[in-house]
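Notes for week 9. Today we move from apo structures to complexes. The key idea is that a small molecule is not decoration. When we ask for a structure prediction with flavin mononucleotide present, the ligand SMILES becomes part of the input, just like the chain. The input block below holds both the sequence and the ligand string. Read it once before you look at the output, and try to guess where the molecule might sit.
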Amino acid sequence: MEALTAGVYHYIPSDHSIQKVADGDRRRDIAIASLGQMWMASAPVQFVVTAEYSRITIKYGDRGVRYALIEIGHIGQNIFLQCQSVGLAAGIVGAFNDREVVRVLGIETDHEPIIIFPVGWQA
Ligand SMILES: Cc1cc2nc3c(=O)[nH]c(=O)nc-3n(C[C@H](O)[C@H](O)[C@H](O)COP(=O)(O)O)c2cc1C
């Protein structure tokens, strides 16, 4: 398996790949942005799930927000199921400062962070 260097990676669903968008370990800063929940800083991986609402509301109107949040719930469930199947622990963090998370990751401001899954400790 290919080892990843520390950084921010963007998931590309169309070919199930990841693309590095920034260097550097941001996990501690994400924990600080999450109202100081430092337990999450030690997670080998933090999945930050964001929504770009305009991409779905253009098709479904305001109801698109509901669909995006439903899909994020499915994503989270899949992350938890996969962790369980390979013996890794997973957490869930909804308490964070949205703007701080966007700043720490250096992502575009129309990508709204919805939920963070710190995962990867040995269960
Ligand atoms: C949407 C959502 C957001 C959560 N955010 C946090 C969080 O920021 N910090 C935290 O320690 N736990 C968070 N939790 C975890 C809950 O506090 C709780 O531990 C978890 O849902 C398990 O609940 P149970 O012990 O009643 O089964 C969150 C849970 C959910 C569903």
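The first helix runs from residue 27 to 33.
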